[in-house]
Amino acid sequence: MSGSGFEDDDGPEVVPRFMPRNGMRRDLAYATRLFRRGRYGKAIAALEPLVVQYRDSRDFHYVLGASCLAMGDSGGAAVHLRRARQLDFRHVPTALALAALHVRRLETDKAVELYLEILSMRPGERRAIRALDFLRANSDPVRLAELAASGRIRVLYPKPDPLAAYGPLVAIALAVALATLGVPAAFDLGRRLAESARPSRPGVTAVELDAADRADPVTTSGGFRYVLTEREALDSFDRAKRLFSEYRDDAALVEINRLILSNASASVKAKAEELRSWSREPDFSNLRDRFTYGDVVRDSALYEGVGVLWQGMAANVEKGAAGVAFDFLVGYDQKRRLEGIVKVSLDFEAEVPVDRPLEVLGTIRGVDGHFVLEGIAFHELRTP
Known about the structure:
By secondary structure, the chain is of the alpha+beta class. It has helices at 22-36, 40-47, 58-70, 74-87, 92-104, 108-121, 126-137, 141-150, 162-180, 186-197, 202-205, 211-215, 230-245, 249-260, 266-276, 293-298; strands spanning 307-320, 323-330, 340-346, 358-367, 370-380.
């Protein structure tokens, strides 16, 4: 292994799959060869002039983002790796590179979530297991900061996906071999490693109801949407704390919303809002609880700010200066059942395909008595 953390060429090249034109195909293939040989600066120089042409190519953004990571450009790495993940959140090499970037930035909780997601997609993925082991052995923040400053975390930087290089037959053979060796148990191992690697949330545990709050947690004056008993209000607050501590932020937000819209006392609501400040923007790696369209329709106020991941199709796509908006036909991805229609807005430029099955990640927002989806990312589903 080279000092950069990438291995030298050891097999057929990974040729990017999304190619608009032959000339551009050659450009990206050439940059991919440079990337695999550790010539990251030259790969960046070859790709950066092509950003507009390749704006919807996962492979382009992955190679450019991973090259930026290797060269120490965290900003460029973040931009391109996140774009690659928007285009294909199931691409394991992109997830590995983004997780390594989180480690470099000392965001170990986000890194652990990504490594666990990788293991759920590909049980036995050795790079994810080794990374979790590395984080467990270097869980002290000061020690990790020293490793990041010295460049020793480069061992976490990924190389292009070896399974994509050797074709589906070899991939199937490897999968059978790994299953024979009992590798599916590696996901459980990863979870155990993650528990020791994941940092605690001391700020969450520090938000406490005092004796006065617990003695008088509800009020009878004012207007409210939900009426809770004293026990229900206290249980909802304690449940929100526990869920935040377990990194189940979206489920915790449901409890927070319930308290804010209820007859809970002003003090309890203020501390609930303090808990809300610990919530993270949902992404494909941290969406632990899945709420359906039916859940939200029944009582959308409970889901304000909550992340959801729904499948369907886009219609009535409109592009503007602020981004893209479209109607999302939830549940209609197989054209058999329409659960409902929700307006989705994206604050970034994107080509949203119509009449194709999509998976959309977004945040629920209430607008004029209805709810909309503040889009974060979308992914085109593969059809059989």
